[in-house]
Write a structure and sequence with these properties.
CATH architecture of the largest domain: 3-Layer(bba) Sandwich
Shape: globular
CATH class of the largest domain: Alpha Beta
Bound molecules: flavin-adenine dinucleotide
Largest sheet: 5 strands, parallel
CATH topology of the largest domain: FAD/NAD(P)-binding domain
Structural class: alpha/beta
Number of strands: 26
Radius of gyration: 22 Å
C-alpha cells in the first residue's frame, strides 16, 4: 500500500496528510482541494481581527513540500471508481489510490424562497471577502439563521457600525448547539448590542432592499447573508455507491462501507457505541478524526472516541462546550469571575461541561472538565458548584477513591 489520495484540503484533509507522515507513512500522499488557495482555517473568517478578513493558513507551501505532500490546488474530484481504485479530477487527470480519504466537508444549505439568489453564503474565504467588502457602517444587513455562524457574524458587523437583523425560524437563537443557559446569555448580549431579532419567523421573499417575512412584514436589508446551516458533502461518496445518510457513514475506525475508503471531518457520520451515527461540525472534531483516520489508513486499529468540543467567540465573550449537554442531564452551576461554568451529570456521572466568560477565560476549566469527563467520574455536585474547589483536586480525589 503506497498511494494515498485525500479529497478535500480543509482542516480534516490537510491534518490527515501530515498525520500520515507523523505515523511513518513513506508512500505517496496527494491532497486535492477545490479551493484556489493553500489550505486555510475557517473559524477566523467569522472572527476578523481589526475588522479585516483573515486568511490563516493551516500550512505553507514549504511545509507541504517538506512533508512530501503533493498538493493539487483548485481542482475538484469529479468521480471515484472504487473498483479500479482511482479518482477523476476536473483538470483531466486520474489519480490511482490504494487508500482514499474523503474529507469533503460541508456546504451551505440554500434558502428556497423567491429572491434567494440575492443571499450570500458564509463558508469560504471567498464568501467572507464578498460579505466584508460590501458592508459599510450604517447599512442594514439581514442575517437569516441565528446559529453559531450567524451570531458570530452579527457580533462582528455590530462592531463595524452596521445595523443587524437576525431572522430565525426557531423561537430562540443558538438552540441547536448551545446549552439554553448560555444561549440565553448570548442572545441578551446581542440585544444589548443593538441586534434586532425576528424569531419564529419564516422567510417569504428576498428583495433588493428587504427580507419579507412569511407574514409579509419587511426587514430592511441592503445585504442578506444566509446562515441556515450546512449539509455534509456526500455527492462523490453517494455516486461511488458508499453508504451515506446524514453524512458518509463510517464505522468507529472511520472506515466507510468500502474498506479502502475512509472519511473524516464535517462530511463523516461515525458509528456510535450505543448505535446510530453522529456527525459533528467543529474544527477540533475535524482534526481529531483526521488524525485517527490517518493512523488507521496505515494499519492502525484506533477507535474514534474523542469527546466533542467546540468554541465560539461573540463580542468579548468566549463560549466552550465539551461533551453533549442534554436537557435531561442534572445541571450544576459554578460561578466564576466574569463568567460561569455549567456541568451536566447523567446518573451522577459527569458527561459534559460548558463555560461562558470573557475572552479565553473558561478554557483552562473546560480542559480540566474534559479530563474529568474522560475519566468517567461521578463528582460531588456541591464540590462542582463551589468555585473554591479546584477541578484538579476533584480528579485526584476521584482517582484515589
Ligand atoms: C465561518 C466559519 C466559522 C467557524 N467557526 C468555528 C468555531 O469557532 N469553532 C469550531 O469548532 N468550528 C468552527 N467552524 C467549523 C469548522 O471550521 C469546520 O467544522 C471545519 O472546517 C471542518 O473541516 P473539514 O475539513 O471537515 O471541512 P471543510 O473545512 O469544509 O473542508 C472541506 C474541503 O473539501 C473541499 N472539497 C469538497 N468536495 C471536493 C471535491 N469533490 N474535490 C476537491 N475538494 C473538495 C471543499 O472545497 C473544502 O475546501 C466554523 C466554520 C465556518 C464556515
Amino acid at each position: 500500500m503506497d498511494r494515498i489520495v485525500i479529497i478535500g484540503a480543509g482542516e480534516a484533509g490537510t491534518r490527515a496528510a501530515f498525520a500520515l507522515r507523523e505515523a511513518g507513512f513513506i508512500g505517496s500522499v496527494t491532497l486535492a482541494g477545490s479551493e484556489p488557495h493553500l489550505p486555510y482555517e475557517r473559524p477566523p473568517l467569522s472572527k476578523p481581527l481589526d475588522g479585516a478578513v483573515q486568511m490563516k493558513q493551516i500550512c505553507g507551501a514549504e511545509a507541504l513540500q517538506a512533508a512530501g505532500i503533493e498538493y493539487v490546488q483548485d481542482v475538484s474530484a469529479l468521480k471515484i471508481d472504487p473498483n479500479a481504485r482511482c479518482v477523476a479530477l476536473s483538470d483531466g487527470r486520474t489519480l490511482a489510490y490504494d487508500t482514499l480519504l474523503l474529507a469533503t466537508g460541508a456546504r451551505p444549505r440554500r434558502l428556497k424562497c423567491p429572491g434567494s439568489e440575492r443571499a450570500l453564503d458564509f463558508r469560504t474565504f471567498g464568501d467572507a471577502e464578498s460579505i466584508f467588502s460590501r458592508v459599510e457602517p450604517g447599512q442594514n444587513v439581514g442575517i437569516v439563521g441565528g446559529g453559531l455562524i450567524g451570531m458570530e457574524l452579527a457580533a462582528v458587523l455590530r462592531a463595524k457600525g452596521v445595523t443587524v437583523s437576525v431572522i430565525e425560524m426557531a423561537l430562540k437563537p443558538l438552540g441547536r448547539a448551545v446549552p439554553p443557559r448560555f444561549a440565553g446569555k448570548l442572545h441578551a448580549r446581542h440585544e444589548a448590542e443593538g441586534v434586532v431579532f425576528y424569531l419564529g419567523q419564516g422567510i417569504g421573499e428576498i428583495t433588493d432592499d428587504a427580507v419579507l417575512l412569511a407574514d409579509r412584514s419587511a426587514v430592511p436589508a441592503d445585504i442578506v447573508v444566509s446562515a441556515i446551516g450546512v449539509l455534509p458533502d456526500i455527492t462523490l461518496a453517494e455516486a461511488a455507491g458508499l453508504t451515506v445518510g446524514n453524512g458518509i457513514l463510517t464505522d468507529s475506525f472511520l472506515r466507510t462501507s468500502d474498506p479502502n475508503i475512509f472519511a473524516a471531518g464535517d462530511c463523516a457520520a461515525v458509528a456510535q457505541p450505543g448505535g446510530g451515527h453522529m456527525r459533528f461540525e467543529s474544527w477540533r472534531n475535524a482534526r481529531n478524526q483526521a488524525e485517527v483516520a490517518a493512523r488507521n489508513m496505515v494499519g492502525g486499529k484506533e477507535l474514534f472516541g474523542a469527546i466533542p468540543w467546540f468554541w465560539t467567540d461573540q463580542y468579548d465573550l468566549g463560549l466552550q462546550v465539551a461533551g453533549l449537554p442534554q436537557p435531561v442531564h442534572q445541571s450544576v452551576i459554578r460561578p466564576l469571575d466574569g463568567g460561569e461554568l455549567e456541568f451536566y451529570l447523567d446518573g451522577g456521572r459527569l458527561v459534559a461541561a460548558a463555560g461562558l466568560g470573557l475572552g479565553n477565560s473558561v478554557a483552562k476549566d473546560i480542559k480540566l472538565a474534559e479530563i474529568l469527563i474522560a475519566a468517567g467520574i461521578s463528582p460531588d455536585p456541591a464540590a462542582l458548584a463551589d468555585p473554591g474547589v479546584n477541578l484538579k483536586a476533584l480528579l485526584k480525589s476521584a482517582r484515589a477513591a
